[in-house]
Records
---
Amino acid sequence: MPNRFPISTEAVDKTPVATMEIILRLKVKDAMVTNVLAAKKSDTLREIQMMMKENEISGVPVLDENRLVGMISVNDIINALDRNYIHDKAEKHMVRNLIVLEDDMPLTFAVSYFNKYTYRRFPVINKEKEFVGILSTKDVLAAMLFEMNKEINALESRLTSVRADMPNQIVQEFVIKRFDFENAGTASFQLKKLLKEKSVDRKVLRRASVAAYELEINVAIHTFGGTITFIFDKDRITIIAKDNGPGILNVDEVCEEGFSTANEWIRSLGFGAGMGLPNTKRVSDDFSITSQVGVGTTVTSVIFLEAKDESE
Amino acid sequence: MKVSELCERLGASAVTGPFDDRDVTKVYTSDLLSDVMGFAEEESLLITIQAHKNTIAVASQLDMPAIVICNGRKVPDDMRESAVQEKITLLTTKDSQYTASTKVYLALSGA
């Protein structure tokens, strides 16, 4: 049945880019409910009526093996009671001309379906035409809220997203707290995402990810906390890890492979092998470290976007 | 070889995924995450005992299709959640890293 009261999509055209991105990123399978009760086509309408009553649901998909062959709604049950065929099999009266969604469709597509038709839920099938779940308007809302929350969390962890000194330069800064392994990787994940968007060469992307992650982990493990800053220029990425102490006595020593001051606990997590700074140095085109005991350490790694051969 | 096939050959159980059932051609075995970070090739399968969230962060940086957690170590909830988020298949096995690596080697070399 076509929807006589569609939502105005005028507002959608003015939606901020971040929100649009979230909607476009989600697929039907990210939002649908998968553990759905289903009836067999040989079930009677009475059995389905009981199933609906017990589980407080208003529509049941009818399956033949894994294939969706029809739907029975409360309306069909009312008709059956009214016209005295409640003991008939489902296959005799089920709605067969179904409008279905595919699990790989973008969620925007589903939204347009809800707008177009009056149905409050659509059955979902996969590429093999097997029934995989149900999508209701409620599920769409829940999935979008969940995704928005995630995005906002990521945005909040950024101190200043744009504070460029030069045109065409992007600067992102992240706060790293001491021993915060929970969020370690947030900054490098954002870096990776941005570089992917900019279609940076895969090897360069990987080297930048390694440098950013190692430095991020370093700040979390060895310092009182600090910041990590990414500066994107036309030809290079500069990663600056700056902490608030305790500082390093001998900076040459810490760049040697195997030198480590990590404790047992950190080693048990798989860190502290004395490879962080050597790894960072190896993937950098330009690397520098300055430190003052009692003040803090600044490590700078520069990676050029023009790919250099990785010596592995 | 597909992740799902490898899972079967290992007799491992899937905690998450398989997502997109990606192909495995390269493998890296290590419990040192910074070693993995420095020396594992991109898109390798990772065999390790490090059952915590940071392993997912490292695997994600290297675009790894799957991780095999050995010695029957329990996967904590936040690790599983972050694996789902990053679409990395998490397998667990009672085997040691050595045994798991050998099984994967034999499977990939067609034995």
---
Amino acid sequence: MIFSYDLLINAIVSGILIGGFYAAVTCGVSISFGILDIVNIAHPAFIILGSYTAYIVNTTYGFDPILTAIVMLPLFYALGAGIYQVYYVSFEKYGQESLRGLAFFFGILFITEVSLVLYFGVDYRYVDAAYIGPAWHFGLLDIPLRILVPFLVSLLLIAVLQTILTRTFIGRAIMAVSQDQLALRLLGVNPIRIKRIAFGISIATASLAGAFLIIIQPVEPSVGREYIGRVFAICVLGGMGSLPGTVIAAMLIGIVESLTATFYGPSWAPAVSFGFLLLTLAVRPAGLMGR
Amino acid sequence: MRTPVFFALWVGIAAAVLALAFATGNDYVFFAGYVVMQYVVLSTAWNILGGYCGYVNFGSAAFFALGAYSTVAIYKFTSENDLYGLPIPVLMLIGGAVSGVVGFGMGYLTLRLRGAFFAIATLALAVVLQTLVVNWDYVGGSRGAYVVRPEEFAPLGNYIRYLFLIMMLLAVAAITVARMIEHSRLGYGFATIRDDELAAEASGVPTLRLKLIATTISGALMGMAGAPFPYYIGYLQPSSTFGLDYAVNSIAMPLIGGTTSWVGPLIGAVLLGSLQQIATVTISSAVNLLIVGCLLVGFVIVAPNGIVGLVHKYWQRKPDDFVGRRRVETDSPEAVP
């Protein structure tokens, strides 16, 4: 078999770049599922919502998708906080979050997707920006800017989140809420408020991730479903709620997927993350950097 | 009521429904009825794991599609080699066996962890099985596969009548199995897992074994529901067979009907299934899925025990056998672990 090294190197580099984007997609779930223990399977639907927001603003005003997403952060934060409030009042308060909470998020996923289909149809949508199209060439390497820009902003996003979580009071309280709610209460902090803030932040990241998604590839409402398995695989592999772990796991899955797509064909790529997920669950449920 | 009596009663009801359907003389009734019956089986199967054990399965479509695609594979094999095609009940058993084995494997890998992992794994399972089917040219790949439905089935007339009859019998069997489980040691074991798995494990309930039994039975029933589907639809395509509508319906129907007994999924499936058939004809199929989604969210928030729970609340003197065991409500003011 003829083995092509430049193909291999290109596959690995594009895997790392895509991995950075996957990290941005997953960090919201790392907060909601990993830290807060809320199984928000509707997260990819919010990401698609972010994509469509970027799309609408981009096509009507020609505004940059990433800047749009940053402007939209408060809106997504409010959406997240609102959803958490409903979730808390209806399920968490009564300790019924397992079955009904899951069904609740599944319903939200479904409603979002079908509403988008009804409103926009199932055509693929895309955005325009200066960095979509050109690519940088370094010897063997081809780096398309449409992947490099989301990669860099993703890493920035993760760095900001990590700083918030480890350096600020609210961030530390969020980490604490996953460990001991009673202790937090004794310190005079309302765990429900902290969880609401954390869930708001987790949904806010979907705004940015959605903008990245529509920069990288054209989007239609059901694209989000491909990300469900991927996102949770990365989250579990990364060690549930550890952001550095999430980045490493995301790049790992990005590389493996990219290698699979290059050497076996892109139609096999979706199976990779699931394989990883099952393997992780079977062998090391705590993940790479488990607490 | 003893199980044979219960079974006979429902066979009687099924016969009455069949007679009614024949009386209309309209084949569309059979087409619509088939779908409703299929949902009765799917939601009852989902409820055995989801309602009795409290483990949410988002991959109903995957198990359903496994049954359907095993039929397609066998159909291809028999028609290419000029063999005599297998009768549908046999195909159902094969489809059920395949899905049951996959259900067992899934459960074995994920059920030792917290319930959420199982739910996510089932969701991902659907994506992966779809990937496999799309890449498997023998069963048509992404182009889909054609299955030629025979025109007639001798004594009944149009073939769809035969399919409807078979699906209705499967529905009766599924309900009987569900009720049998509910009133057996197995069912009480399931209930302990749902209410407090740790306590159950501590008091000697073999939780892993029970959960594996539940995933296997549930998966097998879903596969059986899927096996005749290629004959019904004629043209099987991965994206529609693995569609989210099966997953959402098989969750929404039991939750809307009520998850604690066999009645809930039946009520949910018949109500929601008929509503969808009407909405598909009168409005559009996308809107009817939106309706299901909204009903699901509405019911889990407002009526956590479904229609059965609502009825039970307003009519406390219901015969015990009809409603089954009631779920013990934990009424803690704040969820502080």
---
Amino acid sequence: MSAATPRCAGWLLATPALLGLLVFVALPFVLAVVLAFTNLRLGSPLPLEFVGLEQFRRIFTDPAFTRALLNNALFVLVVVPLQTLLALALALLLQRRMRGRVVFRTLFFLPVVFPLSLIAVVWVLIYAPGPEGMMNSFLALVSGGAWDARDFLRDPWLALPAIMLTSLWQGAGFQMVILLAGLQAIPGELYEAAAIDGAGRLQRLWYVTLPQLRNTLIFTVLVTTILAFRLFDQVQIMTRGGPRHASTTVMFEAVQAAFTRQQVASGAAMTVVLFTVVLLITGLQRRVARQVREVA
Amino acid sequence: MNGRVQHAVARLLGYIGLLIVLALVLAPIAFMVAGSLKPDARVLVEAGGLAAFLPAGASLDNYRDVFARVAFPRYLFNSLFISALIVIGGLVVNSLAGYAFARLAWRGRDVLFSLVLVVMIVPLEAIAVPLFYQVTLFGWRDTYLVQILPFVANAFSIYLFYTFFLGLPRELEEAARLDGAGVLRTFLMIILPNSRPVFATVAILTFLTQWGAFMWPLLVTSGEAVRPLPLAIATFYTLPPLQWGDIFAFGVMMVAPILVVFLVFQRWFVRGVATTGIKG
């Protein structure tokens, strides 16, 4: 009798997790969408009502929010290509059999285990204003003294790039480990066949390694892009979005709206925009990855 | 001959490149560790030269100051307690769900699984605002519960368990079934011992994420009683007097536990992170 699987066993095993996802992800997600179409504001004398797309009209005409969207987009455009190239170069160099390979890999991965908040605090001091600051001294050194000391985190042109560099420092090792695993999954016969055909190092890289690595590359680009749109911790700790919104992000603005200004509906609308962007990027990635599979 | 020389030069250049990147990666960490050991006043003054990385006149004074100025053990306990419960609870509920989706036949399974895949895309950031008001309604603000329960069930963990269980040979379970073992017994006696890699992967990924959790605790906690380390260091660094030696000592103590775990289970960390990529 007990050999037959009872019909309800699957339900019973899945219920705790499904209940959790329902209450703590699905429900708030539906609420976020619903709230975004209302005028909910804590302490407001106005009655709660549906206002259609009003919140979206408002946030897209709010200079702080549009600046936040632009900043997130800039972040992606700068950090994603740089980090991918750096991680790919490191992975290719570490793929070869060489002395100290494991040590290199371990140390490059080290920043990944550091909590973002700690990294942000340490980099605040690295960016200390004045010529004795670490970053200022470093730039003066490599520029042969041509660099004038700047206050990075309070400079409208440098605050966002400063956060970008911090993220690059932390994220490259993460991406490298994924790419390295992708490289090791490429069958050795492919390289042997290419070598027999007389392909040189660069040709093997171009015709074997990169096409084989394409799905892994697309995945790491997707993850880095989504992380860039979720950017919050470093902004909160290092610059509070300033100076004058120069380093603000969508999530920072959403928290400001919903919690500092009590404009719940407005904050919800911002997070709905954030989710839409994430959804579009994920959809795009799946599409590109599928095409690659069909071509291959 | 020429080719061999070229090869050797390329190798050497590669090595030099790796060493330069390594120096840049390690510099902030060395800065923190050295700074945590020297007198507060010297940390900023010496930041511009090689002295930044050398703990001349090292002492543990800063570490003592941290304990004198804030309730570090309390924050450490909070972080460990919250992360550990999320990891353990998550391993239990998500592995059971992954197994149900991968191996058992039940009504509504396929529809629910596609919903899990949808939920997987929703980042915490996208739901933080309503979730905050939801837990406020429940009366959960400023508790451990509010930092634990919402993160136990995790769609991505379910997905990782699901794909792993799909790959296990069915014969294992069939033998157990013939011997009269029930579903739960089969899972515990047969599946569990054969699935250590996926449990390790999920545990490590969950721990890594939760140990660094910052935004959610910032929103839902206010007192020090239940606040975790990432939030505590952000507050500590704004706490006058600004003493960088103390801040760095706090940082070193905060990263030490996870660093130990990382160095001991390194192979699993790397594999865990790598599998998330390959499966994508």
